[in-house]
What we know:
This protein is mainly α. 72% of the residues lie in helices and 0% in strands.
Amino acid sequence: MGSLVTLSAAVAASASAATGAGLIYSATGRAAPVVARRSLARRPSRTGLDGPSRPSRLSRQALDRRAVLPLVPAAELATALTAAAVAGAAVGYLLFDALAPAALAGILSAGLPFAGYRRRGQDRIERAAESWPRLLEEIRLRAGSLGRSVPQALFESARHAPEEWRAAFDAIA
């Protein structure tokens, strides 16, 4: 039994180290300067004086959170977090038969709903982005071939727009 506990502790430690290294690598968006010498390269200015500035990775992540989390009701988010934490703690207790690893497993698994909500939000945004060319083509056909005015073609096309675009179309109506 002692070797099984040692083996499971070693597996958990190595998985934790690998996860931490992966998170550090993905958070910086590049390897450490010792591994990849990108840090020596000249970075673009954020002021725009050296060319067009681009948003940083952090601001894109903040935009992702703003785009996804406000769409989730607080009660649903709290329920999902609680259910994931309880399920993770139960599995942790079944695996390790101790409270500390079970609590850690519960805390770590509470982050899973965030990943799910983020993925759903990204899928929704991708679907909306893919529908934009179709909407433009529909507006062009209605205004050109069918002889409608541009505003009328816009309003008619708005009825077939995905849910993500409807608020923008409603704002101009």
